[in-house]
Automatic annotation (TrEMBL):
One example of a Gene Ontology biological process annotation: secondary metabolite biosynthetic process
Transmembrane segments: none
InterPro entries from the UniProt entry: FAD/NAD-bd_sf, GMC_OxRdtase, GMC_OxRdtase_N, GMC_OxRtase_C
Family, as annotated: Belongs to the GMC oxidoreductase family.
Signal peptide span: 1-18
Protein name: Glucose-methanol-choline oxidoreductase N-terminal domain-containing protein
Domain of life: Eukaryota
Annotated FAD binding sites: 30-31, 493-494, 539-540
Active site per the UniProt annotation: 494 (proton donor), 538 (proton acceptor)
Domain Glucose-methanol-choline oxidoreductase N-terminal: 86-298
SUPFAM superfamilies: FAD-linked reductases, C-terminal domain, FAD/NAD(P)-binding domain
Keyword Glycoprotein attributed: yes
Amino acid sequence: MLSSYAILIFLWLSEALCSTFDYIVVGGGTSGLALAVRLAQSHSVAVVEAGTYYEISYPLAKTPGADVLPVGSDPDATSGADWGPSREALDKWAEAVDDPSYAFDNVLPYYQRSAAFTPPNLARRLANATTLYNSSAFDPAGGPLQVSFTDFVQPFSTWVARGMEGIGLPQSSEYNNGELEGYHYCMSTIRPQDQSRSSSQAAFLPGLLPSNLRLYKNALAKRILFDEDKNAVGVEIDKVGISTTLRATREVVVSAGVFQSPQLLMVSGIGPREHLEQHNIPVISELPGVGQGMQDHPFFGPSYRVAVETLTRLANNPEYLVQEYLRWLKQHEGVLSSPIADFLAWEKIPDDLRTGFSEGTRHNLSLFGDGWPEVEYLSGAGYVGNVSDFYYDQPDDGYEYASILAVLTAPTSQGTVTLASDDTWDLPIIDPNWLETESDQQLAVAAFKRVRQAFASDDMNPVVIGEEYDPGPQVQTDKEILDWIRNNVMTLWHPSRTCRMGTPDDRMAVLDSRARVYGVNRLRVVDASSFPFLPPGHPQATCYMLAEKIADDILLTQQELTRTDL
């Protein structure tokens, strides 16, 4: 009788016999699946996906700006939140890559193509959690990704709304129309009918999976293969310990994510020459920007005891957790049907908190422009601390806890992704380098003070119990605040631009505006690593936009080649 392992090998070898495709997409995350499904409407496509698990732990280098370094998360982990960047950010993108097709008005149709919007169910939401929105930001013909507002609203979020009003922020309805500043409840990628997550896998695969798309699950891409003319012609992959080669007759598209897209390029011979030679990797295209210039949205926030139920109860009461899980499973409602942060706000730091900014900080922040918010605030219905383990770190003293999280959306610090070895089984080394610049440090301190202003407002006074719990009122000076932030900073899981777009005269650019890798042919990178910079907002919508836009470009290129051949 064959062993289970032998059966796996037999099935894998049978699958590998069909190994030539028009296109190979490496990575089945947010961008990868959307792009692959669009291409597969008229071409044969292979998707190489490393696994099915949500979390991967990445080794992290020590960073001078922060003292706490989290492990990585799955590429789709923040794909629950759906709104695009500001109009100004996209117009800057067009400018940075010298391609007007990226200007806000030109890419809006690509934002709209993937998403189908459903208005909020006001009969099921809290009466004091009414949200404003502009449905014209969506196309009625869009889809298959489901976008809506969750039925359940964290009770603490209604108090954060009051706090934001108390410190002068207006309510916004145009956050999906290029204007972020103000506050609003979160629009999420969620299926309205059962309050479950609408991810790229759930949205694109079940209903749209074409017969000529083959998904290689639990298959790790080892390297991209090139011919003597530097054309990408295939991908070497490893599954159940057996290596095989998939061939691409037209193009290879890498969508492996911000950490592993640059890793795959480097082990394949594309990247900084000195670093590749350290690992005895032959250089095919010397691109010093691969793995460099990483930007992220770091966050932090003080915590308070509050007179309203939060996730503290869920974390400390297993019986209640089971009860809520069954409630969601059977009735599609309750606290588990909502993200932790279901409310947010955006602003530039007001003048009274800018007095301590240095000339350099003022200059750096001015470069982002008037329509680019510097800080985002998220409602955090629980004790946050350093977020090393949100559920297990909740205080168990009979109180409920809550936080308002401050996120830097105009960061100037840059991190790196480098190789641990020449083998993709060895995960890359990540140095996020948060808070390395003076600008980020001063902005972080001002944002922290702004959160304190909200909690101290008359509007939030009825819900706050006692003094600040963490770090506590004894932390007052800018140095004390910065030291606390450094010990408690966390990523919002928005790393980007490790294979960034740019113009041919930019030596740190890895891609042109069509996501094509410089120095080689028939190879593109399409995911958040492709961004020329990290825009404000959350990147999920922009990852879908980029996938839709580049899919169109690939198909148009193929049509032109076909006409030329005729």
